[in-house]
Specification:
Blueprint lengths: L1 H13 L7 E5 L11 E7 L17 E7 L2 E7 L10 H14 L3 E10 L9 E10 L26 H14 L3 E9 L7 H9 L4 E3 L3 H9 L4 E10 L10 H25 L1
Parallel strand pairs: 1-4, 1-5, 5-9, 6-7, 7-8
Antiparallel strand pairs: 2-3, 3-4, 5-8, 6-9
Helix pairs in contact: 1-2, 2-5, 3-6
């Protein structure tokens, strides 16, 4: 296990990956941040030993090292999901590799559907807390204690300091930023009307198919983490439209510039 992580890291270092300060995971349809990165080197996932390969057509498959707002960053252009057939260990393996490379903080983005109907398509939500509905944990495997303490406190999974900086940045840039609870589900099917009602009852403000595993592992590794959801569709069970993935991608692209601005402003402050 640790040997595999070492082999992945050794490969990346041999390709010119330095010691990043911040790791960034880009979600569905959210790749424009890379336009602002001074790219030094990149590696395809399928060339990195033991890395999964992104199978979703709108997720790229590269790990990129460079500079953004004066910070050395390592960026995942495309992430992995349980619905692709991967295990929770596979999905979170890149976080462990980024930690071994040297990251001190982790920023995560995703596309999600709103459960709180005050949150509209094209808006952003900073995740304050989450609900894990994936049916498992990325820490539930034999030997996890060799990578960190087994029983991880999750009373405050999202870093308060970075969350406060996101809120300050949103005010400064006049960007509407909601705060709320993100529910992570397996997918890939979207939710039924009854499921949307259930998610509202249990306290979710938005729902998606990612992020929570990476956040759990970040906490396991004591990496401060913060996450932003781009609201791409609305889960109103009384007026539920049929899913159009192209519309979801278009909405992600529409909202993405504001997310990029927030990420860049945060990087200036940390």
């Amino acid at each position: 296990m640790t040997d595999r992580i070492d082999e992945s890291v050794d490969y990346l270092k041999s390709k010119g990956f330095g010691e990043p300060e911040v790791g960034i995971i880009l979600g569905t349809g959210l790749g424009k941040l890379l336009d602002d990165v001074e790219v030094e080197v990149e590696a395809s996932y399928n060339h990195i030993p033991y890395f999964p390969t992104a199978t979703v057509e709108f997720h790229k498959g590269k790990l990129i090292f460079g500079k953004l707002e004066g910070k050395k960053v390592v960026v995942m252009q495309g992430r992995f999901h349980l619905y692709e057939g991967y295990s929770l260990y596979d999905v979170t393996y890149p976080v462990r590799v980024m930690k071994r490379l040297g990251i001190k903080r982790l920023l995560v983005s995703n596309a999600s559907g709103s459960i709180n109907l005050d949150y509209k398509k094209g808006e952003l939500m900073m995740i304050e807390d989450h609900i894990n509905l994936l049916g498992g944990s990325p820490l539930a495997f034999h030997g996890v204690e060799r990578l960190g303490e087994r029983f991880v406190d999750m009373s405050e999974p999202y870093d308060p300091e970075m969350n406060d900086l996101f809120i300050e940045a949103a005010k400064k840039l006049n960007i509407k930023l909601h705060t709320g609870v993100y529910a992570s589900v397996l997918g890939p099917q979207l939710e039924t009307k009854a499921e949307y009602r259930y998610l509202k009852i249990i306290g979710a403000d938005a729902v998606g198919m990612s992020t929570v595993p990476e956040v759990i592992v970040a906490n396991h590794l004591h990496i401060p983490v913060s996450a932003i959801s781009v609201i791409t569709d609305e889960g109103d069970p009384d007026n539920l439209d049929k899913v159009d993935i192209q519309e979801i991608l278009a909405m992600a692209a529409k909202a993405e510039p504001n997310m990029v601005k927030l990420f860049k402003e945060l990087l200036k402050k940390i």
